[in-house]
Amino acid sequence: MAYLRITPARGGARAIAYAVEQESHQPGIDRVLRASGNNLDPEYAKEQMEVIWNRFGKIDGSYVQAYRVIQSFPLEQLDPDNPDDVDKVNEMGLELASELFPDKQALVATQGDGESGLLHNHIIVNSVSFTDGKSLRAERTNWYHVAKMSNAVVNRHGYDTMSFEVPESRSLRKASQELSNQGKYVWETDLMDRIKAVMQEQDVHDRGAFCDRMKEEGVSVRYRFSRKKGREGELTGVSYHFDDRDGKQRKVKAKGLGKEFMIEAIDEQLKTNQEEHLKKAAAAPPKVSRREELDRLLAQITIPANEPNAATKKESEQAPKQEPSATSTESKETAPGGFEFDVAGHVELMNHRKRTTRKPREVPVEMAFRKDVEKEEVHTPALKENAYDDTLIENEKWEQDRKDEVAKRLLGQQAAEQKRRQEKRETKEKAQREAQVLKQAERERKEKEARERLEERVKNVVLVESSLTKELVDTFAEMVKEKEGKMQTTVADKSRPYTDNDLVRLSKFRIADRKKEERQQRHAPQKTVERDNDPEL
């Protein structure tokens, strides 16, 4: 099966070095079979891209300097041993780079030294535009879009559409496999299970609800936006943060978990949940609003003003009836109609009714409800704005933490690089000192051997041991340099080379001459010059 992969690289120079400068993975096969470039010379790709990075200030590890696109082809269609097929593969890679990234520099290196033996292209794309310095974004770095464009180029050249293997996270696959084989806890699996469970809930039908439910599950969801002149731009991705079972903080981008956890898959599932939610809402009976329900209840509990309430009636019924006493006749009066009634009792009854009669309500429940509604209407936008601000603050904090981490890592790398250079310099200086010591020792050994040979030659000429002095040997060495190998003329006008006897004799003559000059210098009268201290006229 063919393979296609696109990954970001913060070290663009290292990506180029890996593609074209590293040794071949298979002995006997060249690392790079063909090389071409879009908007650059492939021989000077690294230098030309570095010019753009430096021009726009994107030279530290906080920027993505390049994108690596690996595009492989099956053996059934293209043979690595056929030079024409190699040229076609390189040509298709160059077309893909020029169509996908017309305003970017791109290096296309065709290789065939992989374990599978497939012909494949390493396309190193400069993320920074040489026209305006803007970096690659969104669709042009999307795997599905690149795969679609790659198949379009392949079809134009007469080859079948390729079925690419969707790449997984290499670190996730390796870590999960190792831990699962050992029967241990895998935090990635735990996180994916939590995300899947929340995504399947029909009540979760928008991003806000998704973030809230994930927070209840102990997972913080952070959406990443591109920045454009100090304001939030388009949505570029999502990441997840949570504490695993061991209490260790974990954070991972969605693409590190797989395509089903990326923003496109999440939005698709949320859209499905929303459709299901709307279907259920349409099938359910109409819901009575809180205001309508309150009005209905108030209509049932309203009491007329001239009617005593139920509690008053119950008290009057339960109160014991008192028989009129003989002394109560004084409180009775005769009405004009001719009947008698208790005036005091009537007054007391009227006062009791005034105290207990329920007056018409001023609808306190409705007023409280209205206040709640008004408060909710006022506070809801504020709460949403606060939630959005909190999200921005969290994103900014996470971005600052990431920058601090990058800066810390850079400082660590710089310190390690300085330490490595210092150790290398010290090792080099130590090796130089040791070499100088060895060289000096060798020179002294040779000088000693040469002097011993000179002493041996002088000793063979001088019969008396006491005559062998250091001065004689030194002078003999001078004579050897001056006279040895040369010819001398004898008294009989014959030429013959100087022998050791001749050199020793000449050495003695030179020593005698030196001593004579020294004696003459010691006994020569010294001339004194009188100094004139008189002032000039």
UniProtKB/TrEMBL annotation:
Region entry Disordered, spans: 302-339, 410-454, 483-502, 509-537
A Pfam family reported for this protein in Swiss-Prot or TrEMBL: Relaxase
TM spans (from-to): none
Residue stretches of biased makeup (Basic and acidic residues): 417-433, 440-454, 493-502, 509-521, 528-537
Top-level taxonomic group: Bacteria
Ranges of residues in domain MobA/VirD2-like nuclease: 30-158
Name recorded for this polypeptide: MobA/VirD2-like nuclease domain-containing protein
Species the sequence originates in: Alkalicoccus saliphilus
